[in-house]
Amino acid sequence: MNRLVKLFPWAGGLFISAIFLDSLRFKFTGHPTPQHIFTTLREWSGIALFYPAGPWIIGLGELLASLLLIGLPVIFFLANRKRLIAPAQFLGALIAIAIMSGAIFFHLFTPLGVETPVEWNGDTPTAFAPNLFIAACISWLCAALILIIRRRALSVFSGGAVHSA
């Protein structure tokens, strides 16, 4: 069990980072799926920031979370700065859980719905599936577990005032 606790922040961080980094090619290139998602949210909420800025804002947050979950910890490991790994992964998981909480909320409580377009014919969606919602839920769970496992990293940010069992 102890080995699993040590390995999970790396495995969970790798899973989250794979989901986040793979999605960047869609968010940063104007692909129809993020356009559909963020336009739907803009129309529902009346908040113009959702599109075209939304994919970029969320994409940059996902990139930062990935860097903190895997990128920097690998550098810290190689540089023999292992005490910095847990705080970096804690912050990355915190960002990931915030992003995925928003994603889950918007899938469940807005016209976006759980199923989003997965295939397109020009500008028209031709197939829908719950893939993004499922990935958001699994990523949220992974981030929550990383936060629990790396909770002692809070003492770095609070000057040692936080103690965990």
Compile the SSE list and pairings.
Elements: H1 2-27, H2 32-45, H3 53-78, H4 85-109, E1 116-121, E2 124-129, H5 131-149, H6 154-157
Antiparallel strand pairs: 1-2
Helix pairs in contact: 1-3, 1-5, 3-4, 4-5
Structural description of this entry:
Keywords: Membrane, Transmembrane, Transmembrane helix. This protein is mostly helical. It is 69% helix and 7% strand. The chain has one domain. It has helices at 2-27, 32-45, 53-78, 85-109, 131-149, 154-157, and strands at residues 116-121, 124-129. α3 (53-78) packs antiparallel against α4 (85-109). The chain is elongated. The model has no long low-confidence stretch (mean pLDDT 94).
Structure summarized in a few sentences:
The protein is mainly alpha-helical. 69% of the residues lie in helices and 7% in strands. A two-stranded antiparallel ribbon has the order 1-2.
